[in-house]
Write a structure and sequence with these properties.
The structure is a homotetramer.
Chain A lengths: L11 E6 L4 H11 L4 E7 L8 H4 L11 E2 L12 E4 L5 H11 L3 E4 L9 H10 L16 E2 L2 H9 L3 E3 L3 H15 L9 E6 L14 H4 L4 E2 L7 H13 L6 E6 L6 E8 L6 H11 L6 E4 L16 E8 L4 E8 L3 H15 L16
Parallel strand pairs in A: 1-2, 1-4, 2-3, 4-5, 5-7, 6-7, 8-10, 12-13
Antiparallel strand pairs in A: 8-11, 9-10, 11-14, 13-14
Helix pairs in contact in A: 1-10, 5-10, 6-8, 6-9
Chain lengths: ~350, ~350, ~350, ~350
Amino acid sequence: MCNLWGFQMEKIKIGIIGAGGYGGCGAIELFYSHPNAEIRALIDKQDVDKSISDLYPHLKGFCDLPLMAPDDPDCPEDLDVVFFATPDGVGQKEAPLWLDKGVKVIDFSGDFRFNDLETYMGYADRIGRSQGHVSPKLLPRSVYGLAELHRKEIASSDLVGNPGCFAVSCILGLSPAIDSMLIEPESIICDAKTGVSGAGKTPNATFHYPARYESMNAYKISGHQHVYEIERELGILGGQEIKITFTPHVVPLCRGILTTIYAQLRGGQDLKGVEEAYRAFYKDDLFVRIFGPLEPQGSVNVRGSNFCNISLNVDERTGRLIVVSLIDNLVKGQAGSAVQNMNIMFGLEEASGLLHPGVYP
Amino acid sequence: MCNLWGFQMEKIKIGIIGAGGYGGCGAIELFYSHPNAEIRALIDKQDVDKSISDLYPHLKGFCDLPLMAPDDPDCPEDLDVVFFATPDGVGQKEAPLWLDKGVKVIDFSGDFRFNDLETYMGYADRIGRSQGHVSPKLLPRSVYGLAELHRKEIASSDLVGNPGCFAVSCILGLSPAIDSMLIEPESIICDAKTGVSGAGKTPNATFHYPARYESMNAYKISGHQHVYEIERELGILGGQEIKITFTPHVVPLCRGILTTIYAQLRGGQDLKGVEEAYRAFYKDDLFVRIFGPLEPQGSVNVRGSNFCNISLNVDERTGRLIVVSLIDNLVKGQAGSAVQNMNIMFGLEEASGLLHPGVYP
Amino acid sequence: MCNLWGFQMEKIKIGIIGAGGYGGCGAIELFYSHPNAEIRALIDKQDVDKSISDLYPHLKGFCDLPLMAPDDPDCPEDLDVVFFATPDGVGQKEAPLWLDKGVKVIDFSGDFRFNDLETYMGYADRIGRSQGHVSPKLLPRSVYGLAELHRKEIASSDLVGNPGCFAVSCILGLSPAIDSMLIEPESIICDAKTGVSGAGKTPNATFHYPARYESMNAYKISGHQHVYEIERELGILGGQEIKITFTPHVVPLCRGILTTIYAQLRGGQDLKGVEEAYRAFYKDDLFVRIFGPLEPQGSVNVRGSNFCNISLNVDERTGRLIVVSLIDNLVKGQAGSAVQNMNIMFGLEEASGLLHPGVYP
Amino acid sequence: MCNLWGFQMEKIKIGIIGAGGYGGCGAIELFYSHPNAEIRALIDKQDVDKSISDLYPHLKGFCDLPLMAPDDPDCPEDLDVVFFATPDGVGQKEAPLWLDKGVKVIDFSGDFRFNDLETYMGYADRIGRSQGHVSPKLLPRSVYGLAELHRKEIASSDLVGNPGCFAVSCILGLSPAIDSMLIEPESIICDAKTGVSGAGKTPNATFHYPARYESMNAYKISGHQHVYEIERELGILGGQEIKITFTPHVVPLCRGILTTIYAQLRGGQDLKGVEEAYRAFYKDDLFVRIFGPLEPQGSVNVRGSNFCNISLNVDERTGRLIVVSLIDNLVKGQAGSAVQNMNIMFGLEEASGLLHPGVYP
């Protein structure tokens, strides 16, 4: 195995905590074809001692490691990085143990998406987490794990807060417009449609097949917790406080987030300038693809891949920019971004293990 | 059979032109349980002489009439009303023949949604219909067939242009806000998600099962033809020109339109006032149900029924009204509205034949 | 309201126990358009005091009764019939209380599908119910509620065991062949495919949307409990013990059971004779429709209706009869059959409240 | 690149004819991660000069080759192998041109699945191909491309007839039972359920989303053309003529064939012996996985991968073997088998480019 500088090096040794969920499964799938990494430990509170391929039979022969309890003394100590594919609250409690051993940490929850306590507490309010943060001293050390905005900080960090799936979709769809001041910041509306897999593996009444196969709905109208990180990141980029309206919807498909973003263009802006700004902003970002208004934009085109497809449109009649932003919520919206972050943190090719087109139909 | 005044009368004799499409099928299903109407003729260019229950085997035993050619000399003359479940251009050509015989006409296309030629020509531009209108003299006689706005005109009309499915969803979702001047008219954005049945029965690559089951997309961004009638109706109601941004999306389900409507509240408006205005506006409208922000709003709740469910929300942080409007595109969005219009035109109970809850799950 | 003899009579007063499940919901939908019956009490252990239309919002305005606890003292006493839309074990415990008050009982579970204890105990073994039957004295009084086989007994019964959904599909598909001795009884194989709604409303991992939308599987291979009643009914009809192979499968749709039935034709039998036998057997059965080999047989053609569509085919090369039997598992396979039984028990038109074609697409 | 003997060799140069269909797309996806092969030409009658990534936007950046017309003079001459991902009749006409140039051929249709004219003519009858075979002299040179049965012949062949998707599922599910004489050959019944993608990319009324999302059906009962190759292969293996009953069904999912196979066990056979026979038969076959009766068998477990999962069950009550055989119709049922065949024909690792677990959920 070679890194960017051509040295032979050993494979990165990986642990996944919360390995039994969709986030863990997605990471395992990606690591199977990653040339420079190998999974050494799968950790979960549930299904301990079962093989991961009993939970996910498609993995049989590809990854048959057993799930270990979080406190299993046999868990390997010499890992290079652990992924917390766990809900809010787990990573902030357990990350210090790993960091102290020199193991890098990538957390899938909101635990490390905000690098100061005050900001975190605003987020904690939104999710009803009254007890605050368990490891507040770690927050300044953490980096928001969206490579397209924070590649450099990620490269030198050992603690990355992987972004929320809706946040990836909205932030990538809006950043160039904010950065180049193309739009009125107070006019931003994000209307997001997500597949069901975003809600995870645990069954509930809302996602029971008969209740869902022929139904769509809005939810958490103007109250979704991802708004907080979207506004935070856009605010930093734009140098001013930004408040958006964000409405998530669930539609009956499995993978994909399509966010339709509306914002008032500033005077003098047109489609041509918008396209140029977006292409310039993402010129070094392999996983962001910019499309014009007439190009194909079905969510299936990013299914199973780490790409974000962005389509740019201008409604001439009302002077609005309309951006359609597409990702696979389980790849670019979760495990794919996490692997991308890991690659950056270890000086590997950023796309290592991520160059799959997905499967169609 | 009784009308509203208690007289015994014969059943209304119905013809359906374009009976073989989803619109025709939907009307046939509704008329089966309509106490005051019976289908006498099914007319279509395709599948002539086949029984409708060969095309739609679920109708076997309920309606087995053959499809007649449009020029079939055996077509009954003494119909009371014909439904044109046909694309743009058919009704405007053939409606005069029926009207001249004293037969009322309800057209499902855009042919009679605009009651003056100039307005129609604006619409014709949008759909690429350069040849104009074949029967322009009929336009002033036509009424826009949305009962909640035009009940009285429909009652005295013999020519009704049934509204577009997206238009029903948007206009019902916005009318009270426009009527009571609750919102800034230039701030309106309608983000619509439709099931696949809205595209009709004819197969094409976009709606082929493997291409669609796991894909969603936006289309005709800022260019959908239904915008025209939405703006027209809202403009009349608001007494001023109104321009909206409207983005339709297709998601992988069969029936349902969910439109999320965003608009800036005018100063001093709040959720309570909005709810009151909506309830007052629709106080006589059986088929519009108003919900507050926390109430359930899955599209399956209107599937197979003629209801429009409207949920009202205010984003306090940005001062925006967010309305979620739900219909079944094939019922309230098409055949159900048509039957409702017919009921009004013939002095029947407006809900006659339409009081079905639908089927769940 | 009129019964078959033209007398005016009051509406039948109905109670539904276990009203909050899919079986209860299906019955409520059917009773809304039933001319001779009305629901007086909805009873459930869960969601007590909630309106049924809070659980099933599509029922709002159609049925808003509250769910009462099973022991609610306010439950009306003067019901005419109660439906136990409950799992095994509930009806056998509570039915005596109702029967003693002169209330007829229709039970959706296996509790009253076998009219002697020995036979029931064989079934109890299959479902792991070691404690036996709570009310064994009622068993001889009970009737197997498949109208096409037991119309007369049902008419004079006050205790009906509504058949299992797979059993309806298999028994209707096989009865004429057994009755006319067209096939070798030991050669019968039933390969059944069911939609997900058959598993009921309670969410679980197997029917979680992401796990199910793109997966099909066989289950309980040669061990499903419905085999027992199928063999029982066919055995009675054929006058000999009959053992079948039955394999259920779940496929990703909501409503429908398609059972493909294979059996060796006896010498001298051909398609023509088979068709004649089937048509003769079901000549008085409105809800069974016989089709030849080339006619359309999608499960959607019975969706939402009480029909069983049977298609007859002969594989000339191997001498096998191949019957395709289609029902909606929630209608003819459950609530529809129950209403049909009630109609028979009360001397009403058998099809009363059941003549709906369903909705397409 | 290395072959099995460790020599460096150039990448195999591939052409795909009929590249625009699902079969072509599937091959392109597989070749992207194939270490020893690269696509040099994509040929199709339709969409000539378009990039394949315009047809399949998920391929953008992975394969952007243009589609060339079949007679394009610029088509590279120095290919090593061409895949005919085309319907019956194309390969038999054009294959000689390629073979004469020393290019190996793998054909996805029935054109080269039978290595003598008489047998082919029986197949031609089934598909209504009255004109016979265009290149009958090639037939003895062709090999049936199911690696698990014909690995050696494939290795030395330059003309392979890739098997039909249903045939792969049935033959793999039955071969050990036939080979070890475990079952009565005249008792075999194959009940197959396929996803919609098996019907290809061309839209039609049967696979239009609204007509399909909630419907399943049997078709071509006892008349499907794949029966012919199944009986042919099993007959060779069993050393006797074998006639089976085969019923295909379409269910509403995209990828997957689940075939439930029924056959009478011969005296003295039991589950243990059956399992041993199956494991022994497939001991060298990486892509066939044998499961016992209780192990998980959802079709999603093979989705996107080249595996065939076989579950073995015995119905003790009737003495029947019940085999559940699962494949992805587009991978092991088509493009995956083709790549597997190519690997064998060129002396590569048989699994080269095929070791993907697929993606879940």
